[in-house]
């Protein structure tokens, strides 16, 4: 089997996504990810995304190329890319959490933090992992 890798990025939308747009995105992503054996988690809050994707190197490279070119969001910024021995989000073809409403949480803190903090891979990963069982 090819090397497994994990990739985390953040991005923003010009106009906030509504529920329908988020659902459409997830339907397409989940179907494609199942086919390509890609797992992960997508967080959304008020027009900002953070996503972790994991799978075989070539599949992740291709998906991140597509995601980077996707005009439905901008400022796609790579936060982390590393080889992994096993998946951390194995249960999800693409888990999803909209944290636009509700209590402040790790993701909100992360988004409101300084730009340099947003590029801290350990911090980004901790935020994503904190949503794994919520
Ligand atoms: C925030 C965001 C997350 C996305 N996540 C995925 C994903 O996990 N899997 C996927 O196949 N497409 C995902 N997409 C869609 C891709 O950007 C792209 O539209 C899709 O891979 C199809 O690309 P193609 O039309 O060039 O084949 C995502 C798009 C956005 C805006």
Number of helices: 5
Please report the distance between the alpha carbons of the first and last residues.
Answer: 31 Å
Main sheet: which strands, in order across? 4-1-3-2-5
User: Overall 3D geometry?
Assistant: globular
Named once each, the bound ligands are: flavin mononucleotide
Low-confidence stretches: none
Oligomer classification: single chain
Order of helices and strands: EHEEHEEHHH
- Give me the secondary-structure category: alpha+beta
Just give the CATH class.
Alpha Beta
Number of domains: 1
How much helix, percentage-wise, in residues?
A: 25-40%
> Which fold does the CATH topology refer to?
Alpha-Beta Plaits
Mean pLDDT: 91
Q: Give me the count of strands.
A: 5
Describe the sheet with the most strands.
Answer: 5 strands, mixed
Rg on CA atoms, Å: 14 Å
The CATH level-2 architecture is identified as 2-Layer Sandwich
Beta-strand content bin: 25-35%
């Amino acid at each position: 089997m090819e090397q497994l890798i994990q990739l985390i990025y953040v991005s923003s939308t010009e106009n906030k996504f509504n529920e329908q747009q988020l659902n459409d995105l997830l339907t397409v992503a989940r179907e494609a990810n199942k086919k390509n054996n890609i797992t992960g988690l997508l967080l959304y809050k008020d027009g900002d995304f953070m996503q972790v994707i994991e799978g075989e190197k070539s599949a992740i490279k291709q998906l991140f190329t597509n995601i980077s070119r996707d005009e439905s969001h901008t400022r796609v910024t790579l936060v982390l890319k590393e080889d992994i021995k096993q998946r951390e989000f194995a249960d999800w073809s693409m888990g999803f959490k909209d944290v636009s409403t509700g209590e402040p949480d790790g993701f909100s803190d992360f988004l409101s933090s300084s730009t340099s903090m947003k590029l801290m891979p350990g911090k980004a990963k901790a935020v994503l992992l904190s949503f794994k069982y919520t």
